[in-house]
Structures are given as C-alpha cells and as structure tokens.
Fold this sequence. Notes:
The complex is a heterodimer. Chain A is an alpha/beta fold. Chain A has helices at 12-17, 29-34, 36-51, 68-73, 76-92, 103-112, 125-134, 159-162, 166-175, 210-219, 231-243, 255-262; strands spanning 4-6, 24-27, 56-57, 97-100, 121-124, 150-152, 179-180, 225-228, 251-254. Chain A folds into 2 domains: 12-132, Rossmann fold (3-Layer(aba) Sandwich); 140-262, Rossmann fold, CATH 3.40.50. Chain A is 44% helix and 11% strand. A 4-stranded parallel sheet of chain A has the order 3-2-4-5. In chain A, strands 7-6-8-9 form a 4-stranded parallel sheet, sandwiched between helices. Chain A is globular, with a radius of gyration of 18 Å. Chain B is an all-alpha fold. At the A-B interface, strand 1, helix 2, helix 3, helix 4 and helix 5 of A face helix 9, helix 13, helix 18, helix 19 and strand 1 of B. One iron/sulfur cluster binds at residues 313-315, 322, 324, 368-374, 384-385 of chain B. One iron/sulfur cluster is lined by residues 303-309, 324-325, 328, 377-378, 380, 382 of chain B.
Amino acid sequence: MSNKxxxxxxxxxxxxxxxxxxxxxxxxxxxxxxxDRAKKITRAFVKILEHCKVSYAILGTDETDSGDVAKRAxxxxxxQMQAMQNIEIMNSFEIKKIITCDPHDYNVIxxxxxxxxxxxxxxxxxxxxDKLIKEGRLKLNTETFKGKKITYHDPxxxxxxxxxxxxxxxVLKQISNDFVEMERNRERALCCGxxxxxxxxxxxxxxxxxxxxxxxDALATKADYIATACPFCMTMMMDGIKMKDKQDxxxxxxxAELIAMSxxx
Amino acid sequence: xxxxIIFALILVLAIAFFxxxxxxxxxxxxxxxxxxxxxxxxxxxxTMFLVAIGQSKMIxxxxxxxxxxxxxxxxxxxxxxxxxxxxxxITGSHRVLSFIPYYNYLVSIFEIFALAVISxxxxxxxRRNIVRVKRFHNPEMTSWPRLxxxxxxxxEILLMSAFFSMNTADSILQIRGEEHFVYTGSFxxxxxxxxxxxxxxxxxLMFVERFGWWFHILGVFAFLNYIPYSxxxxxxxxxxxxxxxxxxxxxxxxxxxxxxxxVKIAMGIINESEAGGEDEVGTFGAKDVKDLSWKNLxxxxxxxxxGRCTAVxxxxxxxxxxxxxxxxxxxxxxxxxxxxxxxxxxEKFDDKKTLINDYIxxxxxxxxxxxxxxxxxxxxxxxxxxxxLELRRYIFMEESAxxxxxxxxxxxxxxNGAPWQYSAADRYAWADELYINE
Lengths: 265, 438
Ligand code: SF4
Ligand code: SF4
C-alpha cells in the first residue's frame, strides 16, 4: 500500500557536524531553488534520489548562484566572486561528486570551475537517472505513459555544449514506447531562446520569439508530452505552449518529473 | 630565351606580391592579444585532419559538401600540373614531365578533376544566382561579398577551361608530329574536344596551345594574388585555424585571469603584494579588434562567408538583427581598416571608430543566446561566441551599458546570490512539505 512519507532533505553542513558525508552533492541551483515551476523539478528529482536510496545532500543556504548568467552577460567579476565562494564551500566539505538538474550550472561547474580550483565529477540528472537504470537501481514502470507520444527538446548546454544526447533519450524510451524526435534534434536542435542571459531580458526586435519557433517544432511531432531537461527550457516551452494555446493538448515536463510520475512517487 | 626570362620575372613578382599581402594579414592577426594555444598537439592535429583536411563538417550539408570536395580535391590535384608548367616556363622545355611512364593517364586524371571543378563551380553559380539559396543573400551579403563569390567561381571555371583547350591543341599537334610536341598518348577528356579544333592550321593551334598555357599560368598568378583580398583566403587559413580550435566543451568560456586576481584580493584569498602588480590590467573585454585575441582575428580571416552559422542561428531565424556571419565579417573589415591605419600612422592611429557601435551594434550583441549552433555548424571551426562575449564584457564591465534588466539580474546575484530578488535564506524553501509515496 502506498504510504506517504515526509522527506527530510539532508544538508551537507548538518551531516558534517555529525561527521557524516553523503556520496553526492545535489546542486539545486538558483532556478531550481526559487523558480516556482523549476522547484517542482527539484522536488521530483529528490523523490527519485530518495526512492533509489542514493546517498545525497544539498548545500542549503551555503549554496549561492553559480554565476553562469552573470558570466554569459559579460560580468566576469560577479561570476568569479560567485564561483570562488561556491568552490571554497564545496572544497571545505570535500565535495567530490555533484548532480544537478540545470545544464547551465552543470556546464559551468564541470568546465569552468576547474580553472578556479574546483574539480568535481559532475552529473546532469538525466545522466544520473540513466546510470541508476543501468545499474539496476531504478526499475521503471512502462504502464503510466503507455500509448503516449513523448518528444524531447535538447538543452543547448547539455547537448551541443557537453555532448549529452543519448542518456535523456535512453531514459525516455524506458517509459514510453512512442518516443518521437523533432525535425531538428541532437546537435541540430534549435535553442529555446533562454540561454546567454536572454531569460532575464526582453528579446530584441524580430518577427517571432525563439521559444515560439521551437514550440512549433515540438507541436509538429503531435506529441502528448514535451520532455525537457533544463529549468530555462521549461519556462520557454511553457510560454510557447501558452502562446499557441495548447496547454490542454500538450504537457511540458522535465525528465525527472516524468520518471517520478511513472513511478507514482 | 626572352620568354623564359619574362616568365621568371612574372613568377618572382607574383610570389613577392603574394608574400607582401600575406605578411600584411599576418601582421594584422598579430595585432590581437596574445593567448597561449600550445597545448594538446596530438588532439589538435587530429581535429585538423578531420575537419580541415577531411572536410567532416562540410558534408553535413551533403550537396554543397560533396561539390566542395570536388573543387577542393580538384584544385590540389590540378596543382601538380602547375609544377610542370613552372619548369617548362622557366627552362623553355615542353611537357618536361612527359618522360614519366603513363604520363597521359596522369594528365587524364587531372582532366577528370578539372571537369569536376568546372561542374561544381557551375552548380555553385547556379545556386548562388539563380536558385538564390537564402544564406547567400542575407543583409551582410552586400554587393562585394556576392561579387567575390562569383569572381572566384568564374575564375576557377576559366582556369580549368584553359587547361582543356591547351591539352586539346597539344594533342592535335602531337598527332600531326609537329616539332617540339612530343607524343604522349591521348588525354581522356580533351580527346573528345579534338573534332572542334581539328580544322585549324598548326599555327593557329600552336597559338591556342600557348594562349591556354599562358592564360592558365597567368590566371593562377592573378588568382593567387586575389585570394588575400577575398573570402577565398580560407584555402590557406582553414588549416591553422582548425588546428587552434578550442578543444574544451563547446559551451566553455574562458575565465579572465585579470579578474581572478582582483577577485582573490577582494575575497581576501591573497593580498595585493602576492598578486604581483607587474601585469598591467588592460581593458576588460573588447571594444575594438586590438582587444580581441589573435585567434579571434584569425577566425575573421578564415571565414568563407558561407552563412551556415547564420542559417542555424535562433536569433537570426526569428528576425533579429544578429547574424553570426556578420559578426565575423565585421571583425575582418574593421581589422583591415585598423591595420591599415596602424601601418600608416603607427601606434598613435585613432580614427575614432570601434568595432562596437561602428560595426557591431548593441542590439546584435545582446541578442545572442550563446547556444553555439553557429560554432557547431561552422566548417572551419570559427568561434563566434567568443567574440560576442568579449564585446559583452566590454559593454558590461567598462561601459556599464548592459540592458537594465541584465544589470538588475547581476545586482541581484551580488546581493542575494540569485538572479531574482529572493532572500538567500529561502534558498531551501522548496524542500518544505515534500512527501514521497512509498
Ligand atoms: S550562439 Fe549566438 S550567434 Fe551563435 S547561433 Fe546561437 S544565438 Fe546565434
Ligand atoms: S563563420 Fe563559419 S559558418 Fe559562418 S559564414 Fe564564416 S565560414 Fe561560414
């Protein structure tokens, strides 16, 4: 029988005070911490971690913004201040492995923190879920999404940026027997329009929003679900669906949410 | 003989002029900031073999890709023929290499490639001017870049045609046993043209043969010296430019060392004396070409203006002014102008112009999503994002002229540790009341 349990998310500093250490740091990131839609992704992913009994902890209030958007906007000072604070904290807790749901933070921590003294083994949550499945720690229910068409939007910072194309697809194909690709996919995938600090400003004059164009790609597949793997892509695709007035026909969900749903977590 | 002396003179002049133009380009590239790209040599060679020599990115658009390989391989192969022409020209010999066994088969192979070049160039002309493939007609493709493309294609067709008429006339003269024209055996493709030329007298044919020969070689010299002014310079720079490609993750953006020191001082990790004051902290980011790295500038000279980058740019596809190709073309144009000024007036040169504003507007700079579709698509591994980011750094850190929404985002990060105005104490509020079904 299903039994509701309150999750107490472990915090690195609290574990440390008891002389304990988790294997993985779950890096929540600013979007996952504050953005209402992205918070749901964070919560879904924590359920997966709990369900698979992963040894994890978060930094809690010790975490601060990764600095990614500041850097892409050209403010290297703010970026490096943020990066060095985070590195200092993480190194002081001897963090070795990190998981995050945000491809931007994934990129910045994996590739750019290392120059500043932060060297970690970094996983995107789609890579981590893929790993859990392949290690037999996560058995998926194929009933929930049976007969539902799912398509996937590649986040630029995950796909083109870091060559993570197959893991998200592998995971989705475990829960759906009707996975479809958009016309532009993998390295040719069109951006959702949010990267490079665009998320925080109005778009320049043009004849269309980038997210609208990408939503058209997704809608053309006639999928029931658009899967994403990035909190910013999520915002953009949701905006696109609203703009096209398709909220009732198509749902935009993060891969973590789809997995949590399929397992009814 | 007097002709041989004239030939040798022209050869020397052509090489000297080419050398001069190439060294101007080299000097211009060196106006950029120094960056050390000497790591990972084996990986770099591999990338160069794959992308530049192997054309791996060109074939992602199969039609243009395969045609381009025809022209590329054709040109390299036909250039072996140039070796013979040079020796003949200097020494007065005729087909000096014809002693090589199967010489006529060799020439026949050259002819096959020459035909491939002609056909590919004709199709390219058709695509550019009749079909008007969109990427050749964006706003930055003003009259000069469009003309440049056509000049290159027409010249290549003419050069290859000269090669055919020279061979045909030569074959007939060989058959007629004219003195000087050693019999080599027939050439595969030009032998089909023999009926067209057969009616001519030997004198006319000798003229045709000589004309083809001189046209071919003078054309090659002229073309060689046209290349440094043209997008065609990629035939040389593609190789080093790909060699110096960024090998890190595509979305990696370098950390500014000059900032690292200041941040370490601000955070009390090191003090000022440890930081060592010797490095003059220059401008942050780039306002003009001289603030970019030499690699950025090499990128600019390597661009083939093919527009593959712009054709996949989400900003451009949705009607924004940003076009990654224009960013690169502007950088080259400004560099040419700036370099000319520097060579004329020295360090004091100041024409009151800059890459930002006079060439590239804020509107373009801020429209980029850093999605890297452009860098992935570029067949010669140009890094547009790196230039755009240097321009943003200047606007943000030196001019404080970022869009106001971007400024507030950044201030929020500084004050609350998040790009929005939320309290750092709430970072963890998402975890409240979180239940799992077991
Ligand atoms: S990185 Fe910028 S310039 Fe390049 S394709 Fe994306 S939006 Fe366009
Ligand atoms: S930057 Fe690269 S892709 Fe863009 S036009 Fe130049 S060569 Fe082509």
